[in-house]
Amino acid sequence: MELESKFPELLIAKPKQDREGLPPLDGVEQGKIVTRFPPEPNGYPHIGHAKAAIIDEEYARMYGGKLIFRFDDTNPEKERLEYYAAIKVGLDWLGVKYDHVKNTSDDMELIYKKAEEIIQSGNAYVCTCNKETISKNRREMLSCKCSSGDLSQNTKRWNDMFKKYKPGEAIVRFRGDMHSENTAMRDPTLLRIIDEPHPIHKDKYRIWPNYDFAVAIEDSIDGITHAFRTKEYELRNELYYAILDKLKMRKPKVLEFARLEFDGMPVSKRVLKPLVEEGKVSGYDDPRLPTLEAMRRRGIVPEAIRKFVLSLSFTKSDTLAPFETLESFNRKIVDPTSIRLFITTDPAKLIVKNNNLTDIDVPNHPQKDMGKRKIQIDGSFYISGDDAKFLKVGDEVRLLELYNIRITKVGIDIEADMTDNNFKPQIPKIQWVPRQNVVKIEVLIPKILFVNEQFNENSLEIKQAFTEPHYLELNVGTEIQFVRYGYCRKDSANQVIYTHK
RNA sequence: GCUCCUGUGGUGUAGUCCGGCUAAGCAUACUGCCCUCUCAAGGCAGUGAUCCCGGGUUCAAAUCCCGGCGGGAGCACCA
Q1: What one-character-per-residue DSSP string does A352-413 give?
Q2: How far is the CA of A129 from the C1' of B33 (A)?
Q3: Which of A31, A47, A391, A496 would bridge with A64, disulfide CB 3.0–4.6 Å?
Q4: Closest nucleotide to A269's CA, by C1' atom?
């Protein structure tokens, strides 16, 4: 009673309402957030990039802040110009809008300055031990002789890294703690020598920062407030903060999320590269792959990917991504604008002996006004093998949008008589394609790429099919719903890719 | 092996920080009905979770504590 009057706020129920989209962030002021999407241009963008970019953008947008798109291009051995372009194309396709683009490699002078600073302050040293020794010492928690070298030695060695040393002969190491439980803290590498020409800067630089050093500095100077990264970096948070601490630089907040990968659809270049090289898939845009280009070809639209990513929320728990959920989102988005056409697979011939029509207008969509198309008729049709095999003499079925027929003969050629044109809800309805002017197409049906870690030799089914002449008038890229068959995207003049049912 | 992260229906999540208002919401999948000249989309209904297990704290635990077990990741001069 007394409490009530003194502290009425205690009685107010805490806000537990439903939310949409990503969970709110702690202590963020409107307009004060800056996020970043920092891919390495070392491959084609895939669903994992999409998740990261969408999360980065959503949070920036949620609090009216900014998104910086930054290429973390500090390893010339792996990066190529075409990947910068591919990633940008992918982001634009996804509809992710960024406020600023930059390359980490454009900040090399600054990074060198920071490197010198961290060496000067005694928080880093140049190590000339070989790789084996270094990794052995890490395992055994032992410091090497280089770590006790004085400042003049480190300065001299640092200067020598620009010219004298060969790659592998000297690295800059952070003075961490060789006894730390966190192996990432056992004097990790900060910079190393790489003589491979950089895709943008060619031979201008040969000392390159590694991930931990570059990201920490870049995030800090870019004004990033929230740095989102996948969970496998979690152990490196301590390092990230330690580097900024020694450099006396502003610290962004680092948060992790679970990485996204579909079951049986690996994303790693280690797995994908051999498939492409051996010709087991047609390229990085093969519809079986989880690359953005592949999903686009397959008929997945960006809005569906965004909805899907947001439905996964922002968690660290390992997820087995539900591809069918993505398909469901996609289907709902694509359905209202997909033209309906007839298709027949494993076709069977059907002759309607008393056909008396020469053409018919068929609506392009059952609900939306998408116009009609004219189909020429002469009584000679194809129907799907799947439908044909259930037909018996005497059955009455309806040719969709056309008329009802009664089967008079089955076998290789099916014969029938037209009965009437009254719509009868209870009889089976099947699609058909006139044999005159039939268009022959191939349907590519992507299936799961890997089953139990094994490449699935049957991962791409190719089906021959017949469709209507109207198909020829559609642009490549058009999403079509083949009635009673499924959604497909027109990939070329004579090929479609199956999107989903 | 060591270290870290994680564990809610078939699947993905909400709720867990600040214990009760929900023996658990939403989506997807599945089933049925309605609508429909598609096995699509849309509408309605239903099946399905003792919230990993065991103990503890409490009037009260998915939510707090302890102990197990399962899954994932990191241990590079890659990001």
Answers
A1: ETT---SEEEEES-SSS---EEEEE--SEEEE-HHHHTT--TT-EEEETTS-EEEEEE-SSE
A2: 75
A3: A31
A4: B78
| Complex prediction ipTM | 0.95
Which residues of A spanning 78-107 put their CB closer than 7 angstroms to strand B? 78
Which nucleotide's C1' atom has the smallest distance to the CA of A214? B79
- A8 versus A439: which is more confidently predicted? A439
Spatial distance from the CA of A29 to the C1' of B34 (Å): 49
In eight-state DSSP terms, residue A291 is B
Amino acid, res. A287: P
The tens digit of pLDDT for each residue in A40-55 reads 999 999 999 999 999 9
The half-sphere exposure of A48 on its side-chain side, counting CA atoms within 13 A, is 22
Distance A232 CA to B23 C1' (A): 36
Q: Which residues pair with A36 in a beta bridge?
A: A68
**Chain position carrying tokens 């963008």:** A45
Domains of chain A and any CATH numbers: 339-500 (2.40.240.10)
A398 closest-nt by C1' vs CA: B37
Structural contact between residues A75 and A181, judged by C-beta atoms closer than 8 angstroms: no
pLDDT digits (tens, 9 = 90+) for A109-161: 999 999 999 999 999 999 999 999 999 999 999 999 999 999 999 999 999 99
Cβ atoms of A187 and A147 within 8 Å: the answer is: yes
- Distance between CA atoms of residues A175 and A121, nearest Å: 11
CA of A326 to C1' of B39 (A): 20
CA of A224 to C1' of B68 (A): 41
pTM for this predicted structure: 0.94
pLDDT in tens, A408-429: 999 989 999 999 999 999 999 9
* Residue whose C-alpha is closest to residue A501's, from A484, A482, A481, A487: A487
Nucleotide nearest to A169 (CA to C1'): B77
Q: Which residues does residue A487 pair with via DSSP β-bridges, in sequence order?
A: A481, A500
